[in-house]
Amino acid sequence: MPSLKELRGRITGVKSTRKITNAMKMVAASKLRRAQSQAEAARPYAEAMGRMMAELAAASRGSDASSLPKLLAGTGKDQVHLLVILTSDRGLAGGFNANIVRSARQLIRTLQDEGRTVRLLPVGRKGADILAKEYPDLVVERVAGTEGRDVGFDKAEYVGKKIVSMLEAGEIDRCTLIYNRFVNAMSQIAIQLPLVPLSVAENDNVDTSADAAQYEFEPDEATLLANLLPRNLQVQIFSALLESAAGEQGARMTAMDNASRNASKAIDRLSQKYNRTRQANITNELIEIISGAEAV
Amino acid sequence: MPLRIEIVSPEKRLVDRQVDMAVVPGMEGDIAAMPDRAPLMLQLRGGVVALYEGDKIVDRYFVGGGFADMGAEHCTILADSAQLMSELSADEARDRLRDLETTWAQIEPNDVDTHDRLSREIQSVRAELEAAEGGASV
């Protein structure tokens, strides 16, 4: 049986752990609100961009696939896949990063079994650490995450440009983004979103009937498309980064809430043990005294 | 005022209001968005978006390139970056221009893509600088 002093030490230890997890939960909760409002603020741009993309894609649908930009139509091959994997920079967020890595691992295995070449572009330290250990030859570059700060558009811009330059150089044929979509504070879903070739959502709002006024384009639609596509790619990455940031805070909040609750339970258990031990000690001492007195 | 104008940057929506007319800086010249115009998709250069109520300019925004989607009742501007004119800083723009020009001097002469991109960026920052300096006197 542990001594009273040991038990007291452990109770203090667990109590200070609970203080930390509780504080982390509070911080995550306020960061979550921030991340959510940031994600909301970015939505109008992404929506307007989606509308324009749908119009443009509809306008250029008739043309020959080989004349379309690679970002829209792909390279025509299906050999080298680039996976962009968004994780957090910090741990203590429950299954947040493990989920993504598991999803990535599955996709890598499927692609490799089909004989395709896989390359990885991890964003965020946690995922990069794990993947670099498992697949050291596949990682193209490690991109630092946001380190818990607000997500800036420059990060999305950088990743987008990197993808475009690899595509233009013929180093990759396809590109998929793996990230956590924020559902609510309790759950995030790992999503695999194909970035190249682009999947334009069939937009019901686009009126394709003949009497709808035809769009004019300035400059011509090919140039406009060529300029809009990289931007659209960046916007998609940006909204994924925002979702992922909100998801990270949500996951951390839930994980820390669980940890605090576990700590409270452990404290209860230890206190009970402490009290019982103390009582047993007192009883023992009494017995010794009484039996000593009786012996005299 | 039947024309709804929106100016959105990747981070947030800056403007969402009704105006009579908006003049936007198109790649090939300024274009006015007015009610009942034919739908147009436009690439923007760095320049000033002016919002009109009647004949008066009520607000000016500087956009650093982007796209515009105009229709009969709306004009949506997707700006790479956007700022209220009164918030522009000439000093900051001057610094950025200097940085860009240093990069310009260093790039390979046959790197056409970088050339294109940089010249567009430089033009945009020049326009911003001009707007910031001119804006102070208005």
From TrEMBL, chain A:
<keyword id="KW-0813">Transport</keyword>
<comment type="subunit">
    <text>F-type ATPases have 2 components, CF(1) - the catalytic core - and CF(0) - the membrane proton channel. CF(1) has five subunits: alpha(3), beta(3), gamma(1), delta(1), epsilon(1). CF(0) has three main subunits: a, b and c.</text>
</comment>
<comment type="similarity">
    <text>Belongs to the ATPase gamma chain family.</text>
</comment>
<keyword id="KW-0066">ATP synthesis</keyword>
<dbReference type="InterPro" id="IPR023632">
    <property type="entry name" value="ATP_synth_F1_gsu_CS"/>
</dbReference>
<dbReference type="Pfam" id="PF00231">
    <property type="entry name" value="ATP-synt"/>
</dbReference>
<dbReference type="InterPro" id="IPR035968">
    <property type="entry name" value="ATP_synth_F1_ATPase_gsu"/>
</dbReference>
<keyword id="KW-1003">Cell membrane</keyword>
<keyword id="KW-0375">Hydrogen ion transport</keyword>
<protein>
    <recommendedName>
        <fullName>ATP synthase gamma chain</fullName>
    </recommendedName>
</protein>
<comment type="function">
    <text>Produces ATP from ADP in the presence of a proton gradient across the membrane. The gamma chain is believed to be important in regulating ATPase activity and the flow of protons through the CF(0) complex.</text>
</comment>
<keyword id="KW-0406">Ion transport</keyword>
<keyword id="KW-0472">Membrane</keyword>
<keyword id="KW-0139">CF(1)</keyword>
<dbReference type="InterPro" id="IPR000131">
    <property type="entry name" value="ATP_synth_F1_gsu"/>
</dbReference>
TrEMBL record, chain B:
<protein>
    <recommendedName>
        <fullName>ATP synthase epsilon chain</fullName>
    </recommendedName>
</protein>
<keyword id="KW-1003">Cell membrane</keyword>
<keyword id="KW-0472">Membrane</keyword>
<dbReference type="InterPro" id="IPR020546">
    <property type="entry name" value="ATP_synth_F1_dsu/esu_N"/>
</dbReference>
<keyword id="KW-0813">Transport</keyword>
<dbReference type="GO" id="GO:0005886">
    <property type="term" value="C:plasma membrane"/>
</dbReference>
<comment type="subunit">
    <text>F-type ATPases have 2 components, CF(1) - the catalytic core - and CF(0) - the membrane proton channel. CF(1) has five subunits: alpha(3), beta(3), gamma(1), delta(1), epsilon(1). CF(0) has three main subunits: a, b and c.</text>
</comment>
<comment type="similarity">
    <text>Belongs to the ATPase epsilon chain family.</text>
</comment>
<dbReference type="GO" id="GO:0012505">
    <property type="term" value="C:endomembrane system"/>
</dbReference>
<comment type="function">
    <text>Produces ATP from ADP in the presence of a proton gradient across the membrane.</text>
</comment>
<keyword id="KW-0375">Hydrogen ion transport</keyword>
<dbReference type="GO" id="GO:0005524">
    <property type="term" value="F:ATP binding"/>
</dbReference>
<feature type="domain" description="ATP synthase F1 complex delta/epsilon subunit N-terminal">
    <location>
        <begin position="3"/>
        <end position="82"/>
    </location>
</feature>
<dbReference type="InterPro" id="IPR001469">
    <property type="entry name" value="ATP_synth_F1_dsu/esu"/>
</dbReference>
<dbReference type="InterPro" id="IPR036771">
    <property type="entry name" value="ATPsynth_dsu/esu_N"/>
</dbReference>
<keyword id="KW-0139">CF(1)</keyword>
<dbReference type="GO" id="GO:0045259">
    <property type="term" value="C:proton-transporting ATP synthase complex"/>
</dbReference>
<dbReference type="Pfam" id="PF02823">
    <property type="entry name" value="ATP-synt_DE_N"/>
</dbReference>
<keyword id="KW-0406">Ion transport</keyword>
<dbReference type="GO" id="GO:0046933">
    <property type="term" value="F:proton-transporting ATP synthase activity, rotational mechanism"/>
</dbReference>
<keyword id="KW-0066">ATP synthesis</keyword>
